[in-house]
Amino acid sequence: QNIHLVARWLSSLEKKLEQHSEGSHRDFRVFVSAEPAPCPESHVIPQGILENSIKITSEAPTGMHANLHKALDNFSQDTLEMCSQEKEFRSILFALCYFHAVLAERRKFGPQGWNRSYPFSAGDLTISVSVLYNYLEASSKVPYDDLRYLVGEIMYGGHITDDWDRRLCKTYLEEFIKPEMLEGELCLAPGFPLPGNMDYDGYHQYIDDALPPESPHLYGLHPNAEIGFLTQRSEQLLRTVLELQPRDGSAGEGGAGTREETVQALLEEMLEKLTDEFNMAELMAKVEERTPYAVVALQECERMNVLTAEIRRSLVELELGLKGELTMTSDMESLQNSLFLDTVPESWVRRSYPSTASLGSWFADLLARINELEAWTRDFSLPSTLWLGGFFNPQSILTAVMQTTARKNKWPLDKMTLQCDVTKKSREDFASAPREGAYVHGLFMEGARWDAQVSSARL
């Protein structure tokens, strides 16, 4: 089981299977299991084993309906009958199943669901139910606080590393596991009250009959939360269709020729717009005093040079390959595919800033970042407003703000904290930088909107 954990041993397994295949019983079988690989580079199972195997894939459930049924499938009628406090045990067990389904399915909403992705599994749910059974058998009263703490802080909370995610998990448990659940007054979601005392098949039937249609309301989210998820799924579907287009010359008219012409035109346009690299020797000579702001500017220029040098090198190499002056390599083919599919090439991503944009938007964003750096390095005076999202390392400029303020006022740096105030002005309204701190722009709010009239966020 879990052979993905023993990647180095798999070659030995392949040899053993070859040895035992000769002269073995005709009903001899080997069963192996592995987690799905997150990326092609993680495929560790030897090709020989895969070719001689019957592959069975267990797809993770999608949607609240499937997840809730899947969570309940971990138990049976015997489970429901094993506790002496039958009513309390069944109610809390069903609430835990719903809680588990919510936590697992929230991942599809991206950052609005969880700040980080956590490996919640059926084992967390079954152990939580075992803890519930032990506590109810040992006590005549339901220890709600103890159960919420054990489930939220240990069983599921053991996976959680973000403070806000931990707070979210705790809030769900406070809503799902409380004394009102035994009085028939608890709704797990709008229009979905906690069921009463039923048998195992009755709970499954109740899910089919009473669970409302799939919507963010089932997770306590606003309907707008689904926009990002549906957009991402649509883009993924369309990109998969695009990747399935024929790539060879036998695909008929408009095949390889059109592909190469498209890549060639895009390649020439990018090389034409790409500016020269920053002359670091001249910039360092221009700096009179290496202030924290000047250091950040020089660091950003160095990182930008590394990125633009790789872009120019790879594009020139691909251009020569398309002309037949160089032999096409696998890296050049990967670059060609990325340009055609409007995705950022892997070699650029490794040297780039974090971004999820497509190639066209990413390259336009790159040119805008270069323009910002060019304006900043003319005299190295702090710009009137800083594009915080335009830095390779935004944390560096925030640290520079604190360092400059600490030196000016002779304050200890380790006692400094950042405070952010939202103004009612736009970027163009600022002619110069403030005497202390810095004006920043380019921040976005997700899951809410900013009300400029009262200077507060609204959900």
From TrEMBL:
GO terms for biological process: microtubule-based movement. It holds the Pfam family Dynein_heavy. Residues 89-225 form the Dynein heavy chain AAA lid domain. One of its GO terms (cellular component) is dynein complex. Residues 231-453 form the Dynein heavy chain C-terminal domain. Gene3D superfamilies: 1.20.1270.280, 3.10.490.20, P-loop containing nucleotide triphosphate hydrolases, Region D6 of dynein motor. Residues 1-57 form the Dynein heavy chain region D6 P-loop domain. One of its GO terms (molecular function) is dynein light intermediate chain binding. This is DYH9 protein. It comes from Ptilorrhoa leucosticta.
